Amino acid sequence: MNKTHGECAVPDCLVLMGAAATQLCGTHWPERDFYVTLILMARRTGAERYFETRAASSPEYRAALEDARSRIAAVDGVVRALDERRQVLGLSKAELARQAGMRPEVVRRLLGAGRANPTLATVISLARVMSLDVTISGPCPADRQSDASGTRRRIA
């Protein structure tokens, strides 16, 4: 990528040209074409640096860290899906809580900006109120048999 075309080689970088850069900077130089580069950099916490350092020295720790991150991402995906559905339906968090028979602070905490780790019962209750189904699937083939009797395993 090259800067002369308004692009940058730095990942997560936004390059503004001309009028857009003038608006951002508040300065106007009509005779010049110039760039303002904004690099979105997330600062790593001390805990993240510790985890990465430890993972670099231990394959077992790296595997456990990746597994934990995968589980967290899965839970975050479920919570995001619930919140997106709530917004589509035009429900406030308090109204969703009322319809699900929960305290409003439980739903606010779950669907808020903080980290969430909802129970399956909570997920099912919220999903049911919003006419969603909760499905658990796995990589096992559909024709896999559960036991020697030949009965097929039911996939929930």
Describe, in short, the structure shown.
The protein has 156 residues and is mainly α. It is built from six helices and two strands. Among the domains are: 3-39, no CATH class; 65-129, 434 Repressor (Amino-terminal Domain), CATH 1.10.260.
What does this structure look like?
With 156 residues, this protein is mainly α. Among the domains are: 3-39, no CATH class; 65-129, 434 Repressor (Amino-terminal Domain), CATH 1.10.260. The protein has helices at residues 18-25, 46-57, 59-89, 93-100, 104-111, 120-129, and strands spanning 13-17, 35-39. The longest helix is centred in the middle third of the chain and has 31 residues, at 59-89. Residues 1-8 and 10-32 have low confidence and may be disordered.
What's the story with the biggest beta sheet?
2 strands, antiparallel
- Beginning-to-end CA distance, first to last residue: 48 Å
CATH class wording of the domain at 65-129:
Mainly Alpha
Taken as a percent bin, the fraction of beta residues is 5-15%
Mean pLDDT: 75
Strand sequence of the main sheet, in spatial order?
A: 1-2
Tally of individual helices: 6
User: What gyration radius follows from the Cα positions, in whole Å?
Assistant: 24 Å
CATH architecture of the domain at 65-129, please? Orthogonal Bundle
Structural class: mainly alpha
Unreliable sequence segments: 1-8, 10-32
> Helix amount, in percent?
40-55%
- The CATH topology assignment of the domain at 65-129 is 434 Repressor (Amino-terminal Domain)
Overall spatial form: elongated
Q: What is the string of helix and strand elements?
A: EHEHHHHH
Total strands: 2
